[in-house]
Amino acid sequence: MPNSFKFERLQQPPLIFAGTGGAHLLQPICDELGLPPGHIDIRRFSDGETRVKINDSVRGRVCFVIQSTSTPVNDNLIELLLILDALKRASAVEINAVIPYFGYARQDRKDEGRVPISSKLVADLIVTAGANRVITCDLHSYQIQGFFNVPMDHIFAAPIMIDYMKKHQTKDFVVVSPDVGNVKRARGYASALNVPLAIIDKRRPQPNVAEVMNIIGNIEGKDILIFDDMVDTAGTLTVAAQALKNKGAQNIYACCTHGVLSGPAFQRLCDSPIKEIFITDTIPHKKGECDKLTVISVAPLFAKVIKRIYTQESVSTLF
């Protein structure tokens, strides 16, 4: 067991629960904290409705609920809402929603007429259900933090990603941002790795379709790290990788916090010039899904954040 934060001297240690979308992180996080996992009974009625029952007494306790709203997105979202409501009605004194991957984050504004701002709606649902605080990782858009009317801790996978990438770094390494919107994040990676930055100028004629227009920066003969916050169908990523290869790049690596990997993603990655793709386990993945896939656990990071929130220490100093 790793060096645990000991709660013996505290009268009421926190309770850590997880829904289906966070079950893979529950035990590793609890192991890091030296705490037993909380128990929830989650079942489905024959018509598909979700039934939730908390099997531990939570009256007057501080609770953390781990749940990524990944595939199946709507089922996991409803499950999270029901768990929060159950804790609220069972008189938990504080309810913290730990959402490693926040679904619906891409719909964060009205980019055309007669469309919803889905991120705001989901944020309202989570707060109404009972969350007193939300903890999430690498939001697709930073402004989503303002959609919540409760404290929001936005954490970053960069520290664990950078530590891992330093083991693969070569002299001629270049960090590449797949689009202009990710330049700030990619620049942070480039600065931490002490390497140059390049930018891909792309346009998106329709959702999940990207076309590379220009590559800004010198990448010829260089090893490449493409950074993005998420990879969904892998269309953008693989098109970018091929464009880089055509311009003379050598080994191409990709680093994405959230591996959504839906639809044709695995086939595209297998057929692409990408040598290896690093993702975290904010979304659960099975071993052997793709030979190029390397999964890095965020459990130690979330354990540190949970401990600091519970003991009222600074979270931002971790980053």
Which shape, going by the Cα principal axes? globular
Largest β sheet strand count, sense and barrel closure:
7 strands, mixed
Order of helices and strands: EHEEEHEHEEHEHEEEHEHEEH
Structural class: alpha/beta
Structure summary, number of beta strands: 14
- Poorly predicted segments: none
Q: What is the residue-mean pLDDT, rounded to a whole number?
A: 91
Helix residue percentage? 25-40%
- Give me the side-by-side strand order of the main sheet: 10-9-8-11-12-13-14
- End-to-end distance, in Å? 24 Å
> How much β-strand is present in the residues?
25-35%
What multimeric state do the chains show?
single chain
If you compute it from the alpha carbons, what radius of gyration comes out, rounded to the nearest whole angstrom? 20 Å
Distinct helical segment count: 8
Structure, briefly:
The chain has 8 helices and 14 strands. It is of the alpha/beta class and 319 residues long.
Explain what you see.
- The chain has 319 residues and is α/β, with parallel strands linked by helices.
- The protein has eight helices and 14 strands.
- The chain has helices spanning 23-33, 73-89, 118-129, 158-165, 183-193, 235-246, 265-271, 299-310, and strands at residues 15-18, 40-44, 50-54, 62-66, 94-99, 133-137, 152-155, 173-177, 197-206, 209-216, 223-231, 252-259, 274-280, 293-296.
- The strands form three sheets. A seven-stranded mixed sheet has the order 10-9-8-11-12-13-14, sandwiched between helices.
- Helix 1 crosses helix 8 (299-310).
